[in-house]
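Exercise 7.
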Amino acid sequence: MIHFIDIMEKEFILENVEESVLYPDIEPYAVYHLDVDHGHRIYVEESGNPEGIPLVYLHGGPGGHCKPQHRCLFDPTVYRIILFDQRGAGQSIPKASIENNTTYHLINDMEQLRQYLNIEKWVVFGASWGSTLALLYAQQHPENVLGLLLRSIFLATQRELDWVIKPDGVARIFPKQWQTFMDFAPAEYRYSPLTYYYQCLTGEDETLRQHATLNLATWTGCLVSFAQFVDPLSFSDELLQEIKIELHYVTHRYFIEEQQILNNINKLQNIQGIIIHGQQDLLCPLDGAYLLHQAWKNTRLDIVPTGGHLGSVPGMAKAVVKAAQDMAEMI
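Solution. The predicted structure, written as tokens, is:
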């Protein structure tokens, strides 16, 4: 089933939700670091109803982090809301570490967290890269998943990467910004600019590291913001942390095989899922979500015509709130 959600027509009537769409701010009732392996400690917080439906939130990036508003997407009387920062990201330590930091380390961290919390099954929510991680986790541990809530689908395929860095992709919409992104790399890296960016980010030259961070963040940032930057980005350790981890995963092709998610879609057929995607998503075009929906029959695809990649815009946030309500009823 495919739903087109038009916030102007208010197709979905949200009950018990404030006009701002999100639930009121809530504070975590538990905050801690969980030791995983190889010296990594992931930052975890729990909020909502301790006896409610367990839900784990997987942030984007890789290299992003959880934010207070992420808790407010889910009914705190219904859900036990579990947020954590992935290895090296956010408040997890050591910060910005790419040692022993792969997709399967993250999946194992999720399992260790689930077991630590004594949860038999949980709902897994993933946004952007988080949707990739959610799908891979569910394919490896389907017996531990109550349902999947996925926003802004990214399947981590070469086609999706080419869309972002090749001249015949989204560069046709933002040619000036793409040229600036490309001009940073020497001519010999014309066909593999991210290789040079990665060398800069992991090298010893601080000036190059800062310029590479800002250039890459500006290019990808314009895709999620429709190039509407109010002020130029400024360098910060937090920005470097995010970009370094993201490029580490991109450079290693997310540590998975090409088309791995779709090739193993049969492992999800007994899991129900709701997919939310913006029609105007320029970073992760809608066709990826559509392909996933077509292959995975036990899903509903909610398309937000006014939505882009970010989940913070009203149309996307409203769709997630509604999907979480529906998932609770389905469970």
